[in-house]
Amino acid sequence: MEPKFNPKSIPNRVTAIAVQARMRANSASHYELGLFYQAMLKRRLWSSHRDLAESFGVSRPNVSKAIALARIPSEVVNAIGGAEHISFRVGALLLDAIDQIGEALFIRRAREAVRVGFTAVDDILEFVVFDRIPQHAPNKIQVHLARDKKSLRVDIPDLDDLLPHLPRVEAFISTAFVMFKSALAADIAAAAVKAQRRLGTKTSGQKERTR
Predict the structure, then answer these.
(1) N or C: fewer beta carbons within 10 Å in the chain?
(2) Inter-residue contact 31 to 69 (CB < 8 Å)
(3) How do residues 146-177 score in pLDDT, each as one tens digit?
C-alpha cells in the first residue's frame, strides 16, 4: 500500500511532527506510523529510535515495534484487508509467518482464505499462519416483538461476517420459517388427533355406563 505521506515533502522536524500529529488524529494504524517513522530515520531527521520517540511524545518501545511492522510487504497488508487490521499482535504474527513460510506462500494462502469467505482478520490468520480451518461456536440469536406488534426483530451477533451473504441469509431464514410453520402445523394436527382419541375413549366409556 502507498503511504499516506510523501517523505520528500517533509524537510525538517517541525513539519514531521505536524504530519505525525495529523496522522494520529486521523487514526493512522501502527503499520502506517511505522512506515512514517522509518522514513524519517532514513531521511536522517532523527538518528535513533529514542530521539524520534522523545520528539513525537511516544514511547521508544512503541516506536521500535511500529518500525518493525514496516517490514511487512504491502502485498501482505492488502491480502488481509488493509493496514487498519494490523495491530502490534497481528503484526508480530504476520512477521513470524512470513519468516516461516515465506512471503509468496503467505500471500497465496491469504488470498485463498478471502476467496473461500473468511473476512475476520483472526480467521484469515488462523487459516494462513496456523494452517487451520477456523471453528466458531455459534452465538445465540435473539428474536423480539417489534414496536408495531406486527413484526419480529432478529438480533444476530457477529453480523459483519454475514453482511456479504445477505441474500443467502434471507433465503435461509425464509426456508427455516416455512419449515417451522409446517412443523408447528404438524404438532397441532398431532395434538388434535390425540384429543379426538381421548374424546372417543370417553364417549365409548359413557355409552358403556349408560347401557
Answers:
(1) C
(2) yes
(3) 777 678 778 777 777 777 788 888 888 889 88
118-136 burial string, b = 16+ CB within 10 Å, else e?
A: beebebbbbbbbeeeeeee
Of 62, 63, 71, nearest in space to 95 by CA:
71
Residue 196: in which H helix or E strand, if any? helix 166-210
Q: Determine the Cα–Cα distance for residues 180 and 11; give it in Å rounded to an integer.
A: 69
- Quickly list DSSP for 69-116: HTTS-HHHHHHTT-GGG--HHHHHHHHHHHHHH-HHHHHHHHHHHHHH
* End-to-end Cα distance, the chain: 95
Which residues lie below 8 Å from residue 33, measured CB to CB, with a gap of 6+?
20, 23, 24, 66
DSSP letter at 55? H
DSSP 3-state assignment of 11? coil
Distance CA 115, CA 17 (A): 40
Q: Which tens digit of pLDDT belongs to each residue from 26-62?
A: 999 999 999 999 999 999 999 999 999 999 999 999 9
Question: E strands within the chain?
Answer: 142-145, 152-155
Percentages helix, strand, coil for the chain, rounded to the nearest 5? 70, 5, 30
3-state SS, residue 138: coil
Please give the grid coordinates belonging to residue 139: 452465538
Query: What single letter denotes the amino acid at residue 151?
Result: S
